[in-house]
Amino acid sequence: MRIGLLTSGGDCPGLNAVIRGAVLKGVRTHDAEFVGFRYGWRGLVEGDTMHVDRHTVRGIGRQGGTILGSSRTNPFEGEKGGPDNIRKTMSELGVDSIIAIGGEGTLTAARRLADAGINVVGVPKTIDNDLGGTDYSFGFDTAVEIATEAIDRLRTTAESHQRCIVAEVMGRHVGWIALHSGMASGAHAILIPEQPKTIDEICGWVESVRDRGRAPVLVVSEGFKFAGMEDAHSHKGLDAFNRPRLGGISEILAPMIEERTGIESRSQVLGHMQRGGEPSAYDRVLATRLGMAAADSVHQQQWGSMVALRGTEIVSVSIADAVHELNTVPAARYDEAAILFG
After folding, report:
1. How many CA atoms lie within 13 A of 211 on its CB side?
2. Total tally of structural domains belonging to the chain
C-alpha cells in the first residue's frame, strides 16, 4: 500500500508530529510506503511529490510548520482539478489513498473527494478548534499558550500608561482561543463571534475597570461582530475557498473605546504569531496519536472518515459529520467567563 500525505490550509503547530506518527505507524505496523504531496491539494492536483520515509520524519515531531508545505488550493478548480484528474494522478504515482491533514476547508474538500470515490482519510487541524466531531484539535493548545503570553506582556504596558489594550486573536467563526487565552490572562472582557455585543456594553466593562484604578485589557476574536452587524469585518479580499480574509476588528474597536470613554486605547493584532513556532507538549502528543490512528484507518479502509479526540480516546468519525456543524463556544461557557468581566 502506498499512502499519500498532504497538509492543506493554514499552517499549524503539530503538523509535523502528525506526519511522523502516520509514517512510523504505517511503516512499522502495516508495511506501508508513503509519498508526500507538496503544498497541500496543489501537490495532489499537479503531481508534485517528495519522498517520505522513516529517515525523513526523524526528529520532526518537535518542529513547527510542515515539511510538506501548505497552501489554500481548491482541488476542484483548474485544468488538473476534480476527482477524475486526481484519480488519474494517483494512479500514475501508484498512490492508493490519501491522508488529508487540514481544517474546515480542507476536510470539506476531502469529503467531496471521498463521495466521488477517492480513498481519503482526514486528520483535523485547526488552531481555532472549530471542527465538529472532535473535542480538541492539535494546534489549539499552542495557540492559546502564545496568545496568553502575548496578552500578559500587553498588560504590563497597559498598566504602565493606564491605557486600554485590545488584543485580537484568531477565530473566524468561533471564540475558543479568545475564551481560553482571555480567561488564562485575566482579561477584563472577551469578545467572540458567538456573542455579539454593543459598544455600550463593551465601554461599560472598560469604564468599570478604569473606575477600579486598573488598565483595561480586552481580548477579541477576529470574527467578532457588534450587535446588528451581519458579517465579520474584512478588508483583505477572499481566499481560495471564496471566504473573506478576516482581521482588523480590534483596530476599529480601540478608537471607538477611546472616543466614548476618553481612555487612551491601543490595538494589537497577534495574527500569524499564533500559528508559528514549536508545538506544545500536549499538541505533540495529540498530533502523534492522530497520525498513528490515521494510518490505522487507511489500513482498515475507513474511507471518508476522520480521526478525532473524544475524551482521552482517539476514535474514527465521518468527515461529513465533522464538517456539518462547527464546534462553537456554548453559551454556558461564555456566561461562566463573563462573571469575570469589568
Report:
1. 8
2. 2
Distances (CA, A) of 137 to 150, 156, 228, 289, 329: 22, 31, 31, 11, 14
* CATH code for the domain of 115: 3.40.50.450
Judge whether 273 is annotated as a binding position. yes
Distance CA 13, CA 146 (A): 11
Q: Given pLDDT bands bounded at 50, 70 and 90, which one contains residue 8? A: very high
Is 127 flagged in the annotation as binding? yes
Residue 106 marked as a ligand binder: yes
Ranges of H-type helices in 167-265: 176-185, 199-211, 249-261
188-215 tens-digit pLDDT? 999 999 999 999 999 999 999 999 999 9
Q: Is 11 a catalytic residue?
A: no
Residue 338 falls inside a structural domain = no
Using one digit for the tens of pLDDT, what is the confidence trace for 265-314?
999 999 888 888 999 999 999 999 999 999 999 999 999 999 999 999 99
Within this chain, do residues 8 and 133 fall inside the same structural domain, yes or no?
yes
Q: Write out the three cell numbers for 277.
A: 513556532
Work out whether strand 33-37 and strand 49-52 pair parallel, antiparallel, or are unpaired.
antiparallel
Same domain, yes or no: 149 and 121: no
Is 103 known to sit in a ligand binding site? yes
- Work out the mean pLDDT of the chain and round it to a whole number: 94
Is the same domain home to 269 and 294?
no
Instruction: For residues 74 and 84, give the distance between their C-alpha atoms in angstroms, rounded to a whole number.
Output: 15
Kind and range of the H or E run holding 151:
helix 140-161
Q: Do 107 and 194 fall within a single domain? A: no
Same domain, 43 and 115: yes
Catalytic residue among 53, 96, 128, 283: 128
**Is there a domain that residue 151 lies in?**
yes
Distance (Å, whole) CA 28 – CA 281: 24
Range of the domain at 60: 2-138+279-324
